[in-house]
Each structure stands twice: as C-alpha cells, then as structure tokens.
Specification:
By secondary structure, this protein is mostly helical. It is built from six helices and no strands. The chain has helices spanning 3-9, 22-31, 36-40, 52-55, 76-80, 88-91. It is globular, with a radius of gyration of 15 Å. It binds iron/sulfur cluster (2 copies). One iron/sulfur cluster (SF4) is lined by residues 27-28, 31-32, 51-53, 71-72, 75, 77-78, 83, 88. One iron/sulfur cluster (SF4) binds next to helix 3 and helix 6.
Length: 97
C-alpha cells in the first residue's frame, strides 16, 4: 500500500483551489462586503479587491490592516471548498494559522 493510498483511506483530500468566477465573486460580496475589516481598511480600493481566498492577500501591507474580525467562516465558499483559517485578505490563501 502506498503512502498516498493510506492518506486517502484516512480521509485526506487534495484541497481544491477556489475558482475566480462571477458566481464566487457574488458570494464573496455578501461576506467580505459587510465585513468590518473590509470596510475599515478600504480593501476595495486596492487589488485584488475581494475573493482573497482565490486571489491572495490584499496589496495593502499586512501591518497596515487593522483586524476588525473576519466573516469568511460563515461564507458558503469557505464551506464548499473546505477552507480553514480565514482572514485571507491578510494571510493570503493559507489563511490565519
Ligand atoms: S471565504 Fe472569505 S475571501 Fe473567500 S469568498 Fe468567502 S468571504 Fe470572500
Ligand atoms: S477575508 Fe475575511 S477579514 Fe478579510 S475582508 Fe474578507 S471576510 Fe473580512
């Protein structure tokens, strides 16, 4: 039995990358949109603007983003893609550890 087979049998799975598509942008808008960290830090003014779990962290420097909480755990995409961590605008696709 290979190592990969063992991992599959114990439930390990390859995490899928979040698709950058209009449907996911619309969902993100419902969660990043009202997030207090998003509005307080003006994250919509700098690329990638939203969908940070797919596009990576904001171009706003990490040490200039004030953490006011994260709505990602309530987002349908977070559940659908089995994401973890959240705060993708700060910590990029890996999320907060
Ligand atoms: S998980 Fe967070 S960054 Fe990703 S779509 Fe949902 S609200 Fe946006
Ligand atoms: S990634 Fe999380 S913390 Fe950042 S704006 Fe979206 S919901 Fe808020």
């Amino acid at each position: 039995m290979t190592y990969a087979t063992i991992l599959l049998q114990i439930g390990w799975k390859n995490m899928a990358d979040v698709d950058d598509n209009p449907e996911n942008i619309a969902t993100c808008r419902q969660f990043c949109g009202p997030c207090p960290s998003f509005s307080f830090n003006g994250l919509n003014k700098l690329p990638p603007k939203m969908l940070f779990c797919a596009r990576g962290a904001s171009e706003k420097p990490k040490d200039q983003i004030k953490d006011k909480g994260c709505f990602c755990p309530g987002c349908d995409i977070f559940k659908k893609y089995d994401l973890s961590g959240g705060w993708f605008c700060i910590y990029a696709k890996e999320g907060r550890k």
